[in-house]
Design brief:
This protein is of the alpha/beta class. It has three domains: about 250 residues, Aminopeptidase (3-Layer(aba) Sandwich), CATH 3.40.630.10; about 90 residues, Domain of unknown function DUF2172 (Glucose Oxidase, domain 1); about 80 residues, Arc Repressor Mutant, subunit A (Orthogonal Bundle), CATH 1.10.10. The protein is about 30% helix and about 25% strand. It contains twelve helices and 19 strands. The strands form five sheets. The chain has an eight-stranded mixed β-sheet with strand order 1-10-12-11-13-16-14-15, with helices on both faces. It has a four-stranded antiparallel β-sheet with strand order 5-4-9-6. The protein is elongated, with a radius of gyration of 25 Å. The two termini are about 25 Å apart. The relative contact order is 0.14. It binds zinc ion. Zinc ion binds next to loops.
Length: about 450
């Protein structure tokens, strides 16, 4: 294989631990779609990869949307008449509804309750709520704590600001040797929540770090953006270049202990969809593949009809399908180093397929070439050193008619892609195959 991203060069246990440590470091920050928490997050990611930071002013028109005001928060609490903080932002940033406007008031319990949100079915969990596009305020708390609040006059303080500022996002671009880009996108706008979305940020950071040290056919663009408004902003500002994107993945919910789930791109049968399906089929693990639907993460913006980019979402348990989703129970224990490492390995395997998926033409198409005189026949029955066997070679020779890619051949033969790729490499070295495409740096 020309490009090796393979898991064998990775110390899986180490990368899992490093990704979990990365999540632990970023966990306490109060992120939102704009503001200081988002900037500090990008600054910490920059400690791993050289991110380019973009600042887009409030009010910038991005398609049908406008970049919102910037939100920052310093402190927030609800105090009882004894002066005790019964709800305290310093204890968990989930206690404040994200984008709450500044408030200072004294309220009776019934008045205050109109601004309190709990999860009665999980009385020990704090829910996560946002109000980005409606100016209001609120607190989230454990239902158990709400039941303990007695009739009293409560002092309410949200020391926040919602003012013209900027939307911030981070971008890291790795050039490849040929035209065409792979887009790897994650949202980085959630506060202290781990699977959604620190796991995605960890995976993207360590994937980018790894790929930066490897030879690459494709260029890679890694985005750390606020959900929805971030991808809309990026697409609007970069519309003229999106034609370069050949494949893409949205990274989210990759650290829980559930099975891997792939949500197909809007196209449904794009090369990225087939590459992921191939890797999951040969993973030896349980998995699920679901069709595209216009909800979820930023794949719905990349897959809007005006773009229709081949961008799927490779995750573990999908959003909303685990009870801890968008609650304080999506914490550092909910994501495991093992699951993070397993997701990382699968992402690498998918990229390895994309990097090596070529279409060849058999240069000896009339009957089989005589493999024996080329020293290829000894591979009959398999050879551990070469990583392929004669059957894989015969499949490549037979289907390399200029219209079947190596992934087509792998799927049709039932072989794992790496075997087919290795067989093609050997055949090419013996001048039995030529590429159909021109290997160049030219753009489409
Ligand atoms: Zn979310």
């Amino acid at each position: 294989m020309s490009v090796e991203f393979a898991a064998h060069v990775i110390d899986q246990e180490l990368v899992g631990r490093q990704m979990h440590e990365f999540a632990r470091n970023l966990y306490p920050l109060c992120r939102s779609i704009t503001g200081a928490g988002f900037r500090e997050t990008l600054s910490r990611v920059s400690g791993h990869i050289p991110l380019q930071i973009h600042e887009v002013p409030t009010g910038t028109k991005v398609f049908d949307w406008n970049v919102p005001k910037e939100w920052n928060i310093r402190d927030a609490y609800v105090k009882n008449s004894m002066g005790e903080r019964v709800i305290d932002f310093r204890e968990s940033n989930l206690h404040v509804v994200s984008y709450s406007v500044p408030v200072r008031a004294t309220l009776s319990l019934p008045e205050l309750k109109k601004h309190l949100f709990t999860l009665p079915e999980h009385p020990d969990w704090i829910p996560y709520r946002t109000s980005y596009y409606q100016e209001t305020w609120g607190f989230c708390l454990r239902h158990r704590d709400l039941l303990n609040m007695r009739d009293d006059l409560y002092e309410v303080c949200i020391d926040s600001s919602l003012e013209p500022g900027h939307l911030t996002y981070g971008e890291y671009y790795l050039p490849g040797s040929e035209g065409g880009e792979v887009l790897i996108s994650c949202h980085a706008c959630h506060p202290s929540l781990c699977n959604d979305n620190l796991s995605g940020m960890a995976l993207v950071t360590f994937l980018a770090k790894h790929l930066s040290t490897r030879p690459r056919r494709y260029s890679y663009r890694f985005l750390f953006i606020p959900g929805t408004i971030g991808s809309i902003t990026w697409l609007c500002l970069n519309e003229s270049g999106v034609y370069r994107i050949r494949h893409g993945l949205v990274v989210a919910c990759v650290g829980d202990r559930g099975k891997t789930t792939y949500k197909k791109s809007r196209q449904g049968d794009a090369e990225i969809d087939r590459a992921v399906a191939h890797v999951l089929k040969h993973s030896g693990q349980d998995y699920e593949i679901i069709d595209f639907f216009p909800y979820g993460y930023d794949e719905r913006q990349y897959g809007s009809p005006g773009f229709d980019l081949p961008v799927g979402c490779l995750m573990r348990t999908p959003h909303g399908q685990y009870p801890q989703y968008h609650t304080s129970a999506d914490d550092l224990d909910f994501v495991s180093p093992e699951s993070l490492a397993d997701s990382f390995k699968k992402y690498l395997a998918v990229l390895q397929v994309l990097e090596n998926n070529r279409t060849y033409v058999n240069l000896n198409p009339k009957c089989e070439p005589q493999l024996g005189k080329r020293g290829l026949y000894r591979l009959m029955g398999g050879d551990r050193d070469t990583g392929f066997d004669q059957m894989a070679m015969l499949w490549v020779l037979n289907l390399s008619d200029g219209s079947h890619s190596l992934l087509d051949i792998a799927d049709r033969s039932g072989y794992e892609f790496t075997m087919i790729g290795n067989a093609a490499k050997a055949l090419r070295e013996h001048q039995l195959l030529r590429l159909t495409e021109v290997e160049s740096t030219g753009e489409r």
